[in-house]
Amino acid sequence: MKKLLTLISLLVVVSLALSACGGASGGTGSKDLLAAIKDRGYILISTDPNYEPQSFLNTEGKRLANTKCPSDALTTAEMQGFDVDVAVAIGTALGVETCFATPGWDLLTAGNWADKWDMSVGSMTITTSRQKVLVFSVPYYYTPAVVAVAKDSTYTTLDSLAGQALCAGLSTTYEAWLNNDMEALGLPAESIYAKVPKDVTVVPLESDQECAQAIAAGRTDFVGYVTSGTIVDANLAAGLPVRKLDGVVYSEDLAAAFDKASKLDTASLVAKVNEIFTTMHKDGSLSALSIKWLDGLDLTTAPK
Fold this sequence. Notes:
Elements: H1 2-20, H2 33-40, E1 42-46, E2 50-51, E3 55-57, E4 79-80, H3 82-94, E5 97-101, H4 105-110, E6 119-125, E7 134-136, E8 141-150, E9 165-169, H5 173-178, H6 182-185, E10 201-205, H7 208-216, E11 224-228, H8 229-237, E12 242-244, E13 250-259, H9 267-283, H10 285-293
Parallel strand pairs: 1-5, 1-6, 9-10, 9-11
Antiparallel strand pairs: 2-3, 3-4, 6-13, 7-13, 8-11, 8-12, 8-13
């Protein structure tokens, strides 16, 4: 009997351990991700904790009490920004709590998430290379990519940056553009408006927001950075010592992303998110969020 009880105890421990390894989509027995999300009562959405104004930590926020979010995930009280509010709107429409994971950008764009989170709402550009491993929703907004330089520098045009070092976020379209890697950039030719300055050196950091922060901290191994115009506007509003160069280098269609390697079928979740975004476009709620967070600009209409 003692051996039998010991065996039963071991089986229980193993069962619990396997359940704990189920990731965001595990533990419900469902073969459909949307059904699994509704069964557990929360959706785990990845986003960037250092990408103001799109998504950033709320330093005054305290973790929600009685949350269904996993212990290593952030609650809605701990995050803020445009992407965060869009993610919350998705959870609300699904009737579940929204929780946040904050993996590195290179992990997101590489796909094969091992079911650690359900989807991404992190201002991800739709590119042909990313579509090999990810499924994208309809775009929820559109941004211009721009170049910014240190405020006290003498650079005034893209051509004047020839031979200089520029910063970009790791595995971003900005890094791909600076590397003149049009395949990795994966944008239609009509969305690209400028050529890369000659002989630039690329300095990648964990995120493009860190490029501006590094300049403000006195780093001098690069003279400027490429990022979304919304990020530079936020940098300027925060008083960082940077300056935006005139002109847009390319435009980006930004969407939610889903992992093609998900163990659970994502089709119904993708369809539902498309429905949510389409409704939010029509009723003006996406426009309102854009105006609230993105320097009073409505960036939810595709550029013409």
